[in-house]
């Protein structure tokens, strides 16, 4: 498709995190993909990235073997995918596509595939409601697997890691590991993706009314206009 300036329109690749932004605020989603304007990141801890790297390296040591990593053995079904494919694409048309990066994938005895995402948490996830974005994430992973000729098993796992209490911390920090298993829906993922495409095809949508960034901007604008 040609843009009004005659240049070729750049293909937009939506992602689980991008689509979760659509649920939080359609305007910010639109601004990010249509104008390249993102919320400022602020000061962020990279601790979760380090956890991800350590956990993935641990899983890798069991890849290709007959046993699952002891941290999750008995709680998940199948073998670690070997070789592991991390990144998947779904080509919708010339203008839009969907992409996602799995943390892990299990292959069951019936040849179906179960997506896995690792979550670093500050406390026991069983005491809190599931974030809708996590459900969408696993739905999208299942959809991407199916779009790439890997039949999804119909479930996905969130593996949470959070620090345990302990009197013997000097002997090493202990982590609790909790596996949550969710049903996945490829239809829901496709619906979410099409919702994103529709939002991007329209004019700039409304903003969420409880976002601290826009509330701050409105307050500052009002102050400076006085
Ligand atoms: S309310 Fe404003 S800053 Fe907040 S997410 Fe929406 S567009 Fe972005």
Report what the structure shows:
This protein is of the alpha/beta class and 226 residues long. 35% of the residues lie in helices and 20% in strands. It has a single domain, classed as Alpha-Beta Complex (Lambda Exonuclease, Chain A). It has six helices and eight strands. The strands form two sheets. It has a five-stranded mixed β-sheet with strand order 2-5-6-7-8. A three-stranded mixed β-sheet has the order 1-4-3. It is globular. Bound molecules: iron/sulfur cluster (SF4). Iron/sulfur cluster is lined by residues 25, 27-28, 39, 207-208, 211, 213-214.
Strand order of the largest sheet: 2-5-6-7-8
- Distinct small molecules bound, one entry per kind: iron/sulfur cluster
Query: How large is the radius of gyration?
Result: 20 Å
The CATH architecture is Alpha-Beta Complex
Percent strand equals 15-25%
Biggest β-sheet strands, sense, barrel: 5 strands, mixed
Percent of residues in helical segments? 25-40%
Q: Give the overall silhouette.
A: globular
Q: What is the helix tally?
A: 6
Protein traits:
5-stranded mixed sheet, 8 strands, single chain, alpha/beta, disordered N terminus, binds iron/sulfur cluster, Lambda Exonuclease, Chain A
Summarize the structure.
With 226 residues, the chain is an alpha/beta fold.
Describe the protein's topology.
Blueprint: E1 12-14, H1 16-24, H2 26-35, H3 47-60, E2 79-80, E3 87-91, E4 96-101, E5 104-107, E6 113-120, H4 132-147, E7 155-163, E8 175-183, H5 186-201, H6 212-225
Parallel strand pairs: 1-4, 6-7
Antiparallel strand pairs: 2-5, 3-4, 5-6, 7-8
Helix pairs in contact: 1-2, 1-4, 4-5
The protein binds iron/sulfur cluster.
Iron/sulfur cluster (SF4) binds at residues 25, 27-28, 39, 207-208, 211, 213-214.
């Amino acid at each position: 498709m040609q843009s009004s300036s005659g240049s070729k329109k750049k293909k937009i690749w939506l992602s689980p995190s991008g689509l979760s932004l659509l649920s939080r605020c359609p305007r910010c989603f639109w601004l990010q993909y249509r104008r390249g304007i993102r919320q400022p990141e602020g000061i962020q801890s990279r601790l979760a990235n380090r956890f991800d790297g350590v956990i993935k390296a641990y899983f890798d040591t069991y890849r290709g073997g007959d046993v699952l990593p002891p941290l999750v053995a008995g709680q998940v079904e199948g073998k670690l995918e070997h070789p592991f494919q991390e990144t998947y694409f779904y080509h919708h048309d010339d203008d839009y596509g969907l992409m996602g990066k799995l943390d892990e994938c299990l292959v069951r005895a019936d040849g179906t595939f179960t997506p896995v995402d690792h979550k670093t948490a500050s406390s026991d996830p069983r005491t809190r409601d599931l974030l809708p974005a996590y459900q969408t994430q696993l739905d999208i992973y299942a959809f991407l697997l199916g779009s790439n000729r890997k039949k999804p098993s119909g479930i996905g796992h969130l593996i949470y890691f959070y620090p345990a209490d302990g009197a013997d911390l000097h002997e090493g920090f202990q982590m609790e590991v909790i596996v949550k298993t969710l049903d996945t829906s490829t239809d829901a993922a496709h619906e979410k993706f099409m919702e994103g495409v529709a939002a991007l095809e329209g004019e700039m949508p409304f903003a969420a009314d409880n976002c601290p960034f826009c509330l701050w901007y409105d307050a500052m604008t009002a102050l400076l206009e006085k």
